[in-house]
Every structure is written in structure tokens, then in C-alpha cells.
Amino acid sequence: MKDILIITNYFPPETGAASNRIFHLAEGLQKHHFKVSVLTPLPNYPTGKVFEAYKGRFRHSSVKNNITIDRLWIYASNSKNKLLRLIAMLSYSFSLFWFFIWNKIPKTVIIQSPPLLVAFTSIFFLRSKKRKLILNISDLWPIAGLELGAFKKNFSYKMLEKIERFNYNHANLILGQSNEILSHVRSLFPKKNTFLYRNFPDFVTPKVSKKNTSKGKLKIVYAGLLGIAQGIYKLCQELDYTRIELHIYGAGAEQNKIQTLISNNPELNIIYHGEISRDKLHTALMEYDLTIIPLLNRIYGSVPSKIFEYARLGLPMIYFGGGEGEQIINEYNLGWIAKAGNYSDLNTVISKINPSEIHMERRETIKEVSFKNFDFNTQLNLLSEKI
Predict the structure, then answer these.
(1) Cβ of 149: how many Cβ atoms within 10 Å?
(2) Which residues form the Glycosyl transferase family domain (predicted)?
(3) How far apart are CA 42 and CA 58, in angstroms?
(4) Which end of the chain is more exposed for a tag (fewer CB within 10 A), N or C?
(5) Which residues contact 366 (CB under 8 A, 6 or more apart)?
């Protein structure tokens, strides 16, 4: 049985796409006869505060489903203050360095990126001719930060670019969630060994709802992080509610603004349901006609994992983010496309959706497409051969 260590910033009981993705990877590798261990901070996302059950600890170790999980100290913060965010990343990097000194590290290590500094710390201290380092890139930083307006092209940005290149250069294998990510890596290091590793989900699907589409207004649902990149607050402001209801599940930086908007504008057909467990969410989603996947701005390299999760549920989608995600929606006929950032076009697209298009047969077809083309275990089998 081959030992493998996964280093990540996010892991359950934290919620969100990043946490789910790494959990499924760890569990999948364990089922493929790898001895898996995980290094992660004390859980704190998305609140920026260490969860109550872990407060006051510098380290917490446990074993779940035969996976050893070591949770390390972090100065937790989700502050908009860049210095505090930097301190948070550096604190976890320090904990990793301390762990590396006192513990035996397996010969194969999967490192999640971003955050860039955490990946850099891991690669810097673990690089060795005898060790295989696998860098799992879910978003392209610092490019994504520049597109989101978090960075400016200054000295700090150039330093982050150098760190990015260091990480790519010293990784033995690079996993990328999109073809755009892999193209970017190969533009810098043409001979780098790469593997397209999509964020395919792995869960038992609830039955597709037998109800017909809503007889009145279309019930559109958004479920996920209420962060800056998703732009849900602006979406709430820009949608035409003449023939739709918008239902929202999740938590994040824009949560309070969204709740205030709803409170101050009761005439808007927006219902906020809070945050619920993933299993309960999957069941709840079956009651809606459509889901919407928005991005405030088109982000190069980004392919929202919601595409694959909703496809597995058989839920038709409205995609509003551009890029490679848009191509996937079109290629597999998973729903409707609106031009990224163009809310007028989004409202036009929604107004043209014929409720008769949302029926059981279409939902079952979407599920079949998912099982055939977005299968987690098929992808993991291919990855296992490269590790």
C-alpha cells in the first residue's frame, strides 16, 4: 500500500467546493488502496474563525474512513485587510514547516493551490529527487486575483508570479481543473507533466423530482458561496423578477448585504434559506426548476464545480460566467448561456425559457450525460496510474 499525503487549506467539516473536492480525492485514493493522510488547518472557513469544537488547540489529529487527518494551528481570518490575510496564510505555512521538521513525510505528496504561499512552503521544504510532488491547481493565481481586482501589477504581484513559477517548476506532476489552467502552465514550462483533473462529484443522487415546472413563476436557485467572485448581491439587484423567484442557499462575505436587500425590498421575489448540509441541499435542489451559476467577472482558468454537481443531479442550468464553463454547458446541452457580465442578456435569456423545456426527460438526459462523461471513478483510475 503506497503512502500519500494531501496538503490542503480546506477540508470538512468546512463546506464549499474546495473542501468537497479534496475530501472526495482523499476518499477515492483510499479506496484505490493508497494509505492517505491529510494536512489541513484547524477548520475556519468561511467564517474566518476556528470552529467551536477546535478552539484552543494547536493541533488536532483524527482518523476517519481510514484517512489520518492532522489539523494544524492557524491565525484564522477572512478580513478584507490584506495584511491580516497574509498573516493567516503565513501562520499556516509556519505550522506546516514545523510539522515537516518533526514528522516523516511520505514519498508522494499532493499539494493544493491556491493559496500560493502554502503551496510554496510545501514545495520549498519537501522538494527532493526522492519525493514526487503533485500540484493540484484549482484556480490560477495571481492571474485570478488580478482579474478580481484583488491585486495590481506592482512589485508584490511580480513576487507572486515568481512564486507561481517556482511552484510549477518544482512540481513533478501538475493537476489542473481546466484546459485553460494546463495551457497556462505549459506556456511557462512546455515539457511539464500535466493531467486534466476535473472537479467531478462522487455522491449518491436523490431521485429526480417528478413534479412539473412551476405553474406560476420559474423557481431559480443559487446554492454556494456568497462571495465577491460570485456576485450574488449584484445578481439580486439586476434580475427581472416579473416571472421568476430566486432562492438562495449558502453563506459568505455578501450574506449580510443580501439579507438587508431582501429585508428592505420585500417586493423582490428573493428567498434566502441560509446554509444547510450538502446532503439536505441535494434533496432541496430537486424542487427547483433551474439553477443559476454566475461569476461577477469572467476568470481565466475557472470552471465552477457546480456544473458537474448539478449535472449529476439532473438540474438544468443557466450559466453566467463565460470561459471554459460556457463551452461545457454548450457541448453537453446542460442548459442556457448568458453573456458574462451582461445582466440585460441574462434577463432576456431567462424570459425566453419555455417552461415546457424543463421536464423529466430532460433532467434524466442531463443525468445520463453526467454519468457517461463526468464520472469521478473513471477519472481517478486514470490519475492513479500517474501517481
Answers:
(1) 10
(2) 211-362
(3) 8
(4) N
(5) 311, 314, 315, 316, 334
Give the integer Cα–Cα distance in Å for 205 and 247.
21
Residues 165 and 113: beta-carbon distance below 8 Å = no
Are 194 and 90 members of one domain? yes
> At residue 32, what is the residue type?
H
Q: Sign of the C-alpha dihedral, residues 270, 328, 373, 358?
A: positive
Same-domain pairing of 7 and 133: yes
* Of 140-149, 176-185, 256-265, 327-336, the least confident: 140-149
pLDDT tens digit sequence for 316-362: 999 998 889 999 999 999 999 999 889 999 999 999 998 777 878 88
Q: Determine the Cα–Cα distance for residues 122 and 107; give it in Å rounded to an integer.
A: 13
Q: Which domain holds residue 303?
A: 218-373
Domain membership of residue 319 (yes or no) is yes
273 in Cβ contact with 249 (< 8 Å): yes
Q: Are strands 67-72 and 59-64 parallel, antiparallel or unpaired?
A: antiparallel
What grid cell was written down for 152?
495590481
